[in-house]
Amino acid sequence: MKTKIFIFTLLVMLLFTTTTLAAKPIITADQQYFDINTGLYVLNGNVYIEVKNRIITADQAKVNMGSLEVWGSGGITVKQEDILFTADNVYVYGTQDRAIVEGNVNFSRISVNVTANRVDYNWRDKIATFSGNVQVVQNGKSWCTDTVKYNIVADTFL
Questions:
Q1: pTM
Q2: What is the number of domains present in the chain?
Q3: What is the pLDDT of residues 102-114, one digit of tens each?
Q4: Which of 99, 140, 137 is nearest to 118 (CA)?
Q5: CA distance to 15, 25, 151, per residue, from 39 (Å)
Q6: For residue 72, what are the domain limits?
């Protein structure tokens, strides 16, 4: 039975290889293995995941190569060009180009610094929705709110 599951898993992985290779992900970690029961790659220590021009680092993570989902925790950074989020946890919906970054979220740019409990970021429209104890410092002025949307391309709050 385990042999059949293993062969089935390999066939599924082969089926998704073209999708995965199109994005050419780079994944490294101190320790990594494939959990045949969950179908996830389990990564521990100095996790580095790069897909397109997006980079995620973490202390530990799990990755589903078929759906390009990532669950990461500990020392999270989510980076793309000059966009950088740091936090405690991340969940990436790869096929939707969306990430939820949670726990001690910090976002910094030259003229803006935002801290919050959570940010929902969409790579397609470049809108970051911050929520929970949001504190914004922009051009030397600070203010607080429960939620705020920020257009990263226009560098403006909505």
A1: 0.81
A2: 1
A3: 999 999 888 899 9
A4: 99
A5: 14, 17, 36
A6: 2-157
